[in-house]
Every structure is written in C-alpha cells, then in structure tokens.
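Repro:
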Amino acid sequence: MGLPLTCFFIVFSYLFIFSAAAKLAPALFVFGDSLVDVGNNNHLKVSLAKADFPHNGIDFPGKKPTGRFCNGKNAADFLAEKLGLPSAPPYLSLISKHNHTNASFVAGVSFASGGAGIFDGTDGILKQALTLKKQVRYYAAVHEGLVQELGSAGAQEHLSKSIFAFVIGSLDILGYHGSDSKTSNKTTPQQLVDSMAATLKEELKDNGFKEVKAACCGLGNLNADFPCLPIATYCSNRKDHVFWDLYHPTEAAASILVQNLVDGTEEYTFPMNVRQLAAVAA
C-alpha cells in the first residue's frame, strides 16, 4: 500500500499527486474536502456541508445538484477528463445499501468530503464529514478489494500506475489561530493576505475573468455573507466569475486550475506537472 512520494502544492489547499502511467493513468483516487467532493456528503445524514440543492449543479449535465459545491464540474472531474478517465464516483454511493450493483474500484473512486481537514476535528464544525483519517481507512478497504480482484501483484502494478490526488488543507488554514512561523515576524497577516490577493487577482484577470471578488451565487455583500442557498440568486455570466459561492470556484476556474496542473510550467507545478509525472512510469 506504499505510495510514491512525488507531490505538488497549491495555495490554500494541499494537492499531492502520486505516480501515474499512460492512458494517462488506469485509475484516479481522490482524497480531500469540498473543493473535490463529488457527492459523498449526500450520504452523511447529519452533515451540514451539503450541495444537494439548487442552484448547485446548474451547469452540470442534467442541470441538477449532484453534491458538488459548484455550478458544474469541479477540479476532480476535470482531472479525470485530462487523464482519459470517467469522474471518480463517490465512495459512499458505491457502498450504499441502495446500490445494487457490484462495486468495482478498478477505475478509481473519490473519498473527498466537504468539511474534511488534514487534522481531526475540522469535521466537527459542520457536524459530519469524512476526515482524512477515515478516507485513508476507506482506501485500505478498497486496496484489499483490488487485491482480491486483481491478485496481489496485479493490484500493485495497477496502483503503481494510478493517480492519487489529495486536495485538502483549506479548513485547517482557516481554522488556525496564532503562528510561530518566521513569516509572521517579517510581515503582518494583513500584509501577507493583501499581497497574495493582489497577485492572485492579476493572475486571474490574465485568464479572462472579469469578476474576481464577488461570488456568483449567495447572499449579502459580494454574495459572500451566506452560501448559495435555493433562495439566493445566481449570476448569468458564470464563466466570468472565479467564485461560485463564498468558498468554492466556478466550473470555469476549476478547469483552468486543472489545465495548469496537468500541463503547467514549474511556476504552477513543481517538480513536474501531471503529464510529465504520467510519463515517468509509462
């Protein structure tokens, strides 16, 4: 079950991607939070972090909410497309008592859950989520199933060529108070945030976004005081917006993020992008 150690870092969330091979890869396994949740939280009865209501999904095929915190596809969907794979399905849907098919994890699966953090306890804010620790435990069960299905050697070969993506950490950062870091001695938190925001704003404008502050869907100032609820209005020019709601990117922003992840230069992905990583084990 050991995984290679190649990794990538993205601001405000950690995205670790391990190994790959041509197709670009035979499978995609996704771990993370609401940025890449494709519906696991729909199956958590008491979770407050759900996107199973309008106007979420307004641009997704079928134009219905799927559990994605987005107007359409999220980063996990676009990454799967780039790899030549179907979107990794939510793990909890495959093991649900309402699923009468024999679940197969050969092409991958998503364990991502809105409200999850790297550390235990972040899930408590939203009452219920699949913590990273629990996601890894679920993967252990999937690994065991793949060994039974493919044999030990076959499973090892299959997984060594697969993509493992971790998109998590934003809640840990948002919930962190106080710091002993060297950065805090050189600049105030506000100066750091202002600098990051200014740089990010310019980068986003360079990619054609006209609205980099206001959310497309929500309530209050900049549509960012409250989430995208059914009573909220949503913008018609969603491709011009970076933010779908107060936390999550639009489909358009997620697409550009993954494009840079897969084919970007070292400015965006280090030490290599996903396409280069895929070639390593080809």
